[in-house]
Amino acid sequence: MHKSQSRRETVRVGVAGATGYAGQELVRLLARHPGVELRFAMSSGASDRVPSLPALARLWDGAVSSFAPDRLAADTDAVFLALPDPAAAEVAPALVTAGRRVFDLSGVFRLRDAGQRARWYPEVASLDGAVAYGLPERNRERIRAARLVACPGCYPTAALLTLAPLFAGGLLEDDVIIDAKSGVSGAGKTPSERTHFSECHDSVSAYGIFSHRHGAEIEQELGLPVTFVPHLVPLNRGILETIYARLRPGVSDKDVAAVLDAAYRDAAFVRLLGAELPHIKHVVHTNFCDIGWRVDAASRRLVLVACLDNLVKGAAGQAVQNFNLAFGFDERAGLWA
Amino acid sequence: MHKSQSRRETVRVGVAGATGYAGQELVRLLARHPGVELRFAMSSGASDRVPSLPALARLWDGAVSSFAPDRLAADTDAVFLALPDPAAAEVAPALVTAGRRVFDLSGVFRLRDAGQRARWYPEVASLDGAVAYGLPERNRERIRAARLVACPGCYPTAALLTLAPLFAGGLLEDDVIIDAKSGVSGAGKTPSERTHFSECHDSVSAYGIFSHRHGAEIEQELGLPVTFVPHLVPLNRGILETIYARLRPGVSDKDVAAVLDAAYRDAAFVRLLGAELPHIKHVVHTNFCDIGWRVDAASRRLVLVACLDNLVKGAAGQAVQNFNLAFGFDERAGLWA
Amino acid sequence: MHKSQSRRETVRVGVAGATGYAGQELVRLLARHPGVELRFAMSSGASDRVPSLPALARLWDGAVSSFAPDRLAADTDAVFLALPDPAAAEVAPALVTAGRRVFDLSGVFRLRDAGQRARWYPEVASLDGAVAYGLPERNRERIRAARLVACPGCYPTAALLTLAPLFAGGLLEDDVIIDAKSGVSGAGKTPSERTHFSECHDSVSAYGIFSHRHGAEIEQELGLPVTFVPHLVPLNRGILETIYARLRPGVSDKDVAAVLDAAYRDAAFVRLLGAELPHIKHVVHTNFCDIGWRVDAASRRLVLVACLDNLVKGAAGQAVQNFNLAFGFDERAGLWA
Amino acid sequence: MHKSQSRRETVRVGVAGATGYAGQELVRLLARHPGVELRFAMSSGASDRVPSLPALARLWDGAVSSFAPDRLAADTDAVFLALPDPAAAEVAPALVTAGRRVFDLSGVFRLRDAGQRARWYPEVASLDGAVAYGLPERNRERIRAARLVACPGCYPTAALLTLAPLFAGGLLEDDVIIDAKSGVSGAGKTPSERTHFSECHDSVSAYGIFSHRHGAEIEQELGLPVTFVPHLVPLNRGILETIYARLRPGVSDKDVAAVLDAAYRDAAFVRLLGAELPHIKHVVHTNFCDIGWRVDAASRRLVLVACLDNLVKGAAGQAVQNFNLAFGFDERAGLWA
Q1: ipTM more than 0.85?
Q2: Among A30, B202, B328, D214, which is least packed, fewest CB within 10 Å?
Q3: Which residues pair with A241 in a beta bridge?
């Protein structure tokens, strides 16, 4: 997987939603990607201020232009969508039809079950066979072939990287609890009371208990129900999930380590810490997902802790990693700084 | 000043703007004030949720009601206005006419000069002689007599408590710089990009250079021009001002201490620290203003540092302190927890 | 419980460990308590700086004196111990023998089982019958009679207030998970790498999985094993616990509400929010514990969320509440500001 | 300046002090530098844990080894010293004598005046002509030739980049005030009460008024006295300086812009924002210094605001930039991600 690219030509790329937090991170990553020509950074809120993205001045001095899906369809090879759900649902089909490879950061194409999709994303047309679930460590072959890669966000990514190999290996009983702590940038860039500094600084709260659509997504990929409770914590970037599972009788701490080691032996971006517990500070501004765990043999209780940067491995970095797979680049291209 | 009250009857009080940050702090303070009957807590955004102010449940379980100035005029003795500037400008005159004592936290009645008022608060009618500038430590007699007390906010309060006695004593040359660092709650409760958690967490920035109306207010009270630069820093409550002045020839460190000591000998809420430098953490949730200073004799440079809680001494606490003066209570009543 | 005190004389009180975070909070609370004469605030690190506690200047201008257990035994009625575990273990027995009522914030006298005590607090002598477990809402009678009240800290307090009535009422199956998020002040005042600003700001991490002695304390009081995982989150004051339980067959959401309502009908400091979820910001600087919950009927999963201020209801406020019980004051005395 | 390197061979490099904050940042930058072979990362606190720097796992999996100056002298071409002042003073001379190029992040070799050096760094031997003051934008030629580059820290870098061209151009009167706001990582990695999370979170304070050695360094480079007051603000990385100067009569806003534009036309890492004011959030994790300014023509008051990341442009990035100059690399090599 790590072998260097043999490609010579650059891929013409467009970003839609370039001024949001995930969108800005996409521009930052793609501007330095050795195989990318960043042709368009579009935003429905584009203004004439120059530079449009002050944090990126000198690193990328292009102008953010008004959102124009037709131009994306006409003059790119690949399009990254960092749009609100309805906008993504609206523009993706035409881009796929036009032959573009689409890397979508929204949630609208991630659920396969029609009933679940109707519940969480009503009125989104199915793209069926064109779509791959974009968790590269678990789904490389489908991602390479798909027209649209539906990139999972921070919550499913941390949960699935941790749990999917263990369930696949038959190590766990079915009852799983995922307690997630998220920084505020995960709520996006639109001001709201909930994300007002004075409301979330110095506080912690739970939200979305039994009613968070990312729980449905985790359940789809694991094939079993989970209890998923997200919390807002007062930091900007990064999430940490504490996952409570129970080992099947006869399964040991060593079995857990063996299964995870085997699953991620060739995964550049999953760092297994064993009994060391991960810290959000070690993953921010990287595409890594760090995973640690502890077992209490007497009760067969397994506690796993996973963390990642919600704007990188939980959004823009994941999308670039999928792009690398789809276009034959080294999986780390543009992500290894 | 500290003598206990002799009053027996309680004062009937209303708060307009009770769900904003200063308004909630007013409700918190007035609910435990021994001489107050809190009759109304009104808000234009009042809803039917009970309790209306979840942080205050049990401490004050009244309902926040819809904003109704007529009821304030009819059934109170005193009204606290914690409203946006235009709303305060609109309702205050009628309350004064109705004979209510008004304690206004907005900026609209603080500037006396017609030209300055026209610049910063166009279309605000003058209330002229009815108004006192509500800095209690500098203006007790006028506050006792006034119909409307225009309570200064955090920036002028810290600057004037520090500088006014020194200029009045003739200790300083005219050139003064005030570098202010403010927590985010000073920007109010309305969500905005500027006060979005992800925008102000982990950042510091200056704003309003040469164009902040609180600079005009400081200049009015000192009677000379100042350079005033506010900054947003990533904490919720509290401001700290670093003030750069120059001593007149022959003035010493001891003179500074003597003048400040004399000015605040009887001031319950000004704590003079001398060469100890104040910390915001020591004043939050109190009505104190802490002041420290250092002198470099060779250059005659005087650096003063003052801090206070913008929602207490810079807003609700200051208004209650003025209320105490106006109604003959101990100045500390309701503020000394 | 809320009836006013009839006592007339003040209680002579001493605080040991007055410069730590819980100790400072004790001084702050006791200095304004209407029935207390605060005779001693002692610290092994007392210096000659005046005032010793700059945040409390004016509110309490006494001097912090060197730690002298003999003077506490001789000249007080009640002693609050906010000391490190070994120091508390050393001085408490003599104070009890001298006839003082002791309110201990350390962990050393909380475990009753000799084996557990030997594991977590080796070499601590038992005080046996003299001790009451100081959770006032669950143990009022014993606290009134005890010589030493072993006040539980933030983690057990939130967990037990939430779970104890539900287990006592037979509503829950035995398997319980407690995921706790704690501010940094809970780690105390001694600098360490773990509590260094640059290490814990902008990060979250789990610690003490399967090896935290507060887990043992929760298990003792509930009488069954629990999975307890604490986390450090980047705020100063406050903890929030998310508790995952399972209802026994036939138990409904209404049963949960009924049991909790009955348990806390007369509890001044427990606020039940029902399906509203609590926020740390609403409890900091108060003695409240806020509790909310949600039920998924299909899976019988019950998720409870509880939060409190670790320095107040999780430390100093709890101790003062116990003191009020022991000396016949209104339970809210000194705590209702 | 931006022309690409023609060098082919890699430079053998060692880092001393690799586990401190600046040291870790050096390892991070040098590990991906295309012209560097990172041979040694040493620390007096090196342990056997693998990986030694968990945040850098995968990016740099070398072992941090015990501090061994002899090995640095024997087997490197260039050495970066990220050591406490006394350690840097002790080991630098021998490394210079051994022919190594030394990039020192400490303060001990920055002051040229013997009297000043005796005051702030007593007992440090002079290295005289071997030393260049390592502010690359102002001192390129001397840095290319020097044996030891004394790299200025965050405070002097922001102040000098802003003021030096303006004084050199004769635009300013002599009286300058620098009000600096610094994140906590600038205080280093050693735990202390001052940098304890619970002490600096939610607070702001000034320190070192009239007694900060970086003020002396700024005065040396400008050739005139300044008033320099640093403050600690509750964020981890980044400083912002607000600088108060006065224009000489006849000097305009345009003159300021012209002089700064000319000074930094070819400077990759200085971004001039004009009347836009910089934000710390836009420079963290970069080697940029952002500068904005405003002029009040009537009073000739000039307010400049500059910010940078104290661990990059104020420490490790600056040192790497100097290294690039000294070894003929593009100035941006290893710094442009």
Answers
A1: yes
A2: B328
A3: A180, A306
